[in-house]
Amino acid sequence: MRLSARDLPRGGKRPVPGIIHLGLGAFFRAHVATYLADAIAESGGDWGVIGASLQSPATRDKLAPQDNVYIAVELGPKDRDYRLMDLISDVVVAPEDPGHLIGLMAAPAIRLVTLTVTEKGYCHEPATGRLMTDHPVIAHDFAHPDSPRSAIGFLVSALDQRRRNGQRPFTMLSCDNLPENGRVLRGLVLEFAGALDPDLARWIETEARFPCCMVDRIVPATTEDDIAAVVEATGRLDLALVMHEPFRQWVIEDDFVDGDRPNLAAAGAEMVADVSPFEAMKLRCLNGTHSTLAYLGYLAGHATIHDAVSDPVFERLCRRLWRDEIIPILIPPQGTDLTAYAEALLERYRNPAIRHATWQIAMDGSQKLPQRILGTIADNLRAERPCPALTLAVAGWMKYVSGYDEAGREIDVRDPLADRLRGIWQAHPDPETRADAYLAQGTVFGMLAGQPGFRADLARACAELDIYGARGAAERVRGR
Ligand code: NAI
Ligand code: CS2
């Protein structure tokens, strides 16, 4: 059925910008933007969006020729729905003119800055949440605070301008998959500001707000085939379109500067006092199994999550992870049945329309493992509970970042620590020294430093991975 653009439900008149979003990627356009558009449709308000890329002009160059309007494609298992999104009024590319973005962020009309800059965009140590002051981008920003490159640098510079202008600060809402994302962001901003100007840091500490939130919608990267399929269905060439599953959830700590925020509850977001149980549930049950399937599934030859869970060995591995190693040590949000939540996750993974590449999810594992897998392992070890499946997932990550798969083919590893991690697997054939070489990466494994027993478990998992391969080792874990 050919749909034309006029058949696509528009969001109505574009609202006046009140928000600047840093990191105009697929997830913002498929999740955060849909909630904002729904909130504005329900309750109005000057909550339009100016998007900012801190890296490249790619997204701007796709959106600008189409007046920043794009299609969000909802992919159900059997059908798809098209929504025309016209919330974004402008897109800026920070490296082209950092001062311009700072000026936009300092404008009184902007009361909220949201972020999806990926886990690595915070320039922090995942194991501790501390700012990496020796990170080249942070070092640059300390030396050039008026022309920053990092998200943290832009936030602090814009807050400084607002303070000097006698304005209220904006609220900063991280929508990245970080544990306690708001508190982590607050710590990083205060650390950076404190090094530049203690008075500024004190003002931010008392006046600004950094609510935590849990975000959830599976949004795979858009492919050329996706774009061609939308042309065929709607007659519209949209290079900025996004593809997403039907499910969405947003749980937000209701803590905004002067209580000033869009009416996100009207869009179905849950405004709560404490996000942490929702966040632990999602990061461990969803992202923990996502990363497990990404590494072990990729090594076993499965290109997507759908392919991996269509393999009975990996479906059973997921079930074992939830039943024996993740859910027993989770305290669920009140009234939540975690077994039903996990079953719903499996249905989401099985959606044949969602081609979510294991390679994409495998990215940046050094920034993801602590909150997705290592924290759960640490809790199991403290409770003296075995967790061989999670330990195998860590061994799978180690093998993956070695840069070579089970057939010796090179893997295009994307990770801030890729150069440091590549080849460790091959350089240490002995399982114990191999485990030691990875456990020495403190920014990743810091939280397990006090768990000496983990070394032996990890060495065993590495040995089994070498002997049986990812699928064979996953099969054996099930049998234990
Ligand atoms: P994407 O690749 O489409 O966009 C990533 C955005 O982050 C781009 O704008 C890029 O320029 C920016 N970025 C990357 N590294 C950066 C850095 N060092 N400094 C500043 N900006 C940087 O990815 P997508 O799908 O939008 O995901 C982004 C984040 O959203 C994820 O890392 C995750 O934290 C969160 N998220 C994603 C979901 C998904 O299914 N895609 C679901 C839930 C959360
Ligand atoms: C995925 C997440 O790419 C990844 O690391 O695990 O982006 C995942 O799709 C989302 O967290 C789902 O809400």
From TrEMBL:
Q: Which residues form the Mannitol dehydrogenase C-terminal domain?
A: 274-464
Under InterPro entries, the record lists: 6-PGluconate_DH-like_C_sf (IPR008927), 6PGD_dom2 (IPR013328), Mannitol_DH (IPR000669), Mannitol_DH/Oxidoreductase (IPR050988), Mannitol_DH_C (IPR013118), Mannitol_DH_N (IPR013131), NAD(P)-bd_dom_sf (IPR036291)
Note the coiled coil stretches, chain numbering. none
Keyword Transferase annotated: no
Keywords of the record: Oxidoreductase
The Mannitol dehydrogenase N-terminal domain, residue ranges: 18-263
Q: What is this protein called?
A: Mannitol dehydrogenase family protein
Organism of origin is Thalassovita aquimarina
Q: What is the lineage of its organism?
A: Bacteria, Pseudomonadati, Pseudomonadota, Alphaproteobacteria, Rhodobacterales
